[in-house]
Amino acid sequence: MEQTIRRSEKFPDLIIIERPTFNDQRGFFREFYRHNELEELIGRKVNFVQTNHSHSVHGVLRGIHVSSYDKLLYLANGRAMSVMVDLRPDSPTFKQHEVFHLSADIKICLFAPPGFGNSFYVGGEVADYIYLVGDYYNPTNDTAIRWNDPELNLPWPNEQPIMSEQDAQAISLEEYLNK
Fold this sequence. Notes:
The chain is mostly beta strands. The protein has helices spanning 35-42, 165-168, 173-177; strands spanning 4-7, 15-18, 22-24, 27-29, 50-57, 61-67, 71-86, 97-102, 109-112, 116-133, 142-145. The protein has a single domain (4-177), classed as Jelly Rolls. 9% of the residues lie in helices and 43% in strands. The longest helix is centred in the N-terminal third of the chain and has 8 residues, at 35-42. The protein is globular and about 50 Å long.
């Protein structure tokens, strides 16, 4: 497989990174991103300061989290449906979304700039989601938008997913815009 780094057709600021996998009898090796390539593509400096690992079981939906910093997302294990939503009010693609089906066979890394909401649903037995972020976790810098907000009309495969209390009590898009 050739390396590809491209912009989403729907969202020019959303970067999709697909790097080669080298398999042998031991398993595999893959780089999921290179800092210099990402900065060159987006035309600015990126500073990831924290790496997070989310392990989730089948049926879990991690809500639509929108932050004021860059994120680099990678599914290390399992199968999940990742949904990226443009929540930047001044953007021409405001409220639009794009779905990515991630698995062992579809190993892509997603770069989301500030103002994008990201969420995922675990369709496999488990999912290990690794993400690098451009700021240290602070609950005041992270907002959860209601997963089933009718204004967003997202195509979730389960109407009763397992989720955290924070995600279950998330605010509507309208409340987010009026903050």
